[in-house]
Design goal:
11 helices; two-stranded antiparallel ribbon; mainly alpha; 293 residues; globular
Length: 293
């Protein structure tokens, strides 16, 4: 017992918090990459998460393509669509105020959600858990579903891999340099517009990957990203706008904290992240790992 709370309930909520934190981390990571390297507030991120789930659903129902190939194809499709959006529209807004990018991506989110709601309805569509990940493990003190364990592992791999790509590789150095001084980077013969397009595609692809991971846990719905994106924006603010590592650490941390709040004070579980965001903004406006302008 922990403060008269059964240990099974405590660990169960801790697991749920870790799973939610996995999605928060992946989505906030994509947002942080796009804002940190492109200075675009991508309000379409929740819609891209939803599209990733629907791509997996359509691949299964229309083409008979199972979960594992869809796990690779869904992020690729969403990433390529994001690259197309960046080339045709967002690239024209970089020299304008951040508000223009936010309004465009907000409108894009409304269009995508409206289109999918028109085609598929507002009710959710089931997406079966892959057979290899069905069932779970009895740990004695709790039951661990295989698929939820897989979500946590896959999220960690993707988040750490993305951080290493941005911070420790030559491509990542080019991306960071293109943000700081694009004219100088062009002087070295590097295609800066292509780098920016790839950056937005990477951020969108991360949202699509989170969507296909979420499909067997939550029903595939046109509105599945609407409420989640507000929480993810709060996570990014707490971690620091544009901070890659801050987005990852804060995503897991706040997901776990949200889960534990459901054990000790359930009434506050829906607002705890926003309360923390308000406190952080008062104490450190740049976020836990953000840099002052």
């Amino acid at each position: 017992m922990i403060f008269d709370i059964p240990i099974q309930a405590f660990l169960g909520q801790l697991l749920i918090g870790l799973i939610n934190g996995s999605f928060y981390a992946m989505l906030s990571l994509g947002l942080a990459i796009i804002f940190g390297l492109l200075n675009v507030i991508n309000f379409a991120h929740g819609a891209q998460y939803m599209v990733g789930a629907f791509v997996g659903y359509l691949l299964l129902t229309w083409f008979g393509i199972g979960y594992w190939p869809a796990l690779l194809l869904a992020p690729l499709v969403v990433g390529l669509a994001g690259m197309l959006v960046e080339r045709l529209a967002l690239s024209r807004l970089y020299d304008l105020d951040h508000l223009y990018g936010l309004l465009f991506t907000f409108g894009l989110a409304l269009v995508l959600e409206g289109a999918f709601r028109y085609w598929f309805g507002a009710s959710g569509k089931p997406y079966a858990t892959p057979e290899a990940l069905s069932g779970g493990y009895n740990l004695g003190f709790m039951f661990l579903p295989k698929y939820r364990g897989w979500v946590v592992v896959a999220s960690l791999i993707v988040c750490i891999g993305t951080w290493l790509l941005i911070e420790k590789t030559r491509l990542g150095a080019y991306l960071r340099a293109a943000k700081e001084n694009p004219t100088l980077v062009r002087a070295f013969g590097i295609n800066v517009p292509l780098l920016l397009t790839l950056t937005y595609g990477l951020g969108a692809g991360l949202a699509g990957f989170a969507g296909i991971l979420a499909a067997p846990i939550y029903q595939v719905s046109p509105l599945m990203g609407t409420n989640l994106i507000i929480v993810v924006f709060a996570v990014v603010v707490v971690g620091g706008m544009g901070s890659i590592l801050g987005a990852i650490i804060t995503g897991y941390m706040l997901g776990i904290l949200e889960g534990l709040t459901k054990v000790f004070y359930p009434e506050a579980s829906n607002i705890v992240i926003f309360v923390i965001m308000a406190i952080i903004l008062l104490v450190r406006p740049a976020g836990l790992m953000g840099r002052e302008a």
